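Friendly challenge for the regulars: who can give me the structure tokens for this chain first? No prize, just bragging rights.
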Amino acid sequence: MDVLSEVITVGRTGRPRSAYVRWHAPWRQEFASVPGSAGFQVILEGSCWLLSPHAAPLPLGPGDVLFLPHGTGHTLGDDPATAVTAPACTPDDPELPGPFMSDSVDRLGQGGPVTVVLCGAYQLDPSRTHPLLLTLPDVIHLPADRNRHPELHAAVQLLASEVGNPRLGATAIVPALLDTLLMYVLRIWLAEQPTHGSTTGWAAALNDPAVTAALHAVHRDPTAPWTVAKLATEAGLSRAAFARRFTSMIGQPPLGYLTWWRMTTAARLLQTTEAPLRSIAAQVGYTSEFAFANAFKRTHGLAPGAYRRRARPPHHTG
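First reply, four minutes later:
Bragging rights claimed.
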């Protein structure tokens, strides 16, 4: 897998949640801050405003996409002057009937103009969050433009159809479409960042062929015995020039990133599989279980076995 494909899949925990919600004006909905999550809002019909105490109100229209990579609290409303009409919403609200909610009932509106929003959230494991996500702004706004971004528009329409009218197979289809939507958002945002003359940051790195080649090599085969010289060959640069460029853009040396990625992959395997430690060590490039355990403890502060026990508490019966 390439680095962008794994940004979300490696850090996500549990299943994403989504909802298809219809409001009649006047309405104003708060969305609580949820650290350790990533959320999105897509305006499907009508219009509304993104309201924040730290920024001017932002008008939104059909097809506009908001991505909130840090779970930042925010508010949507039909008008900046409308008062709050409902309690703050959270992804783990016990009143939500399931992970994919279709809500066409206007609970508090007064028959005004309709706004339909597709919203959702990913829960992320902070110990596995990719540094790319940490560098993103609190809110990414992609205005509707089906001519420039037809693939994003198509993903939105498919997702809206499945969440708005769940049918047989939706449990498998919706998570895949959520991943697709998020990948398109990240791809478009990264491609649109001004990187001319920039020498730092993930947006610059993923628009730099040499650094991207090295990153893809690491993600394609993390078990390989990579050295700075071998990664420089993948990048098509001298060893010294590659090391300087990689470190300035990514914020850590090539082998530091390699170790972080191996240990992040190992953490995911410990949490999601029953594989023995020697097998996990081999899957992340270590021939010695002892060396793997030492590296893992340096990164996560716990031995692999203790990390697995903490992440997966035993079930009690009786």
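Confidence is low (pLDDT under 50) at residues 97-105. The longest helix spans residues 170-192. Your move, everyone else.
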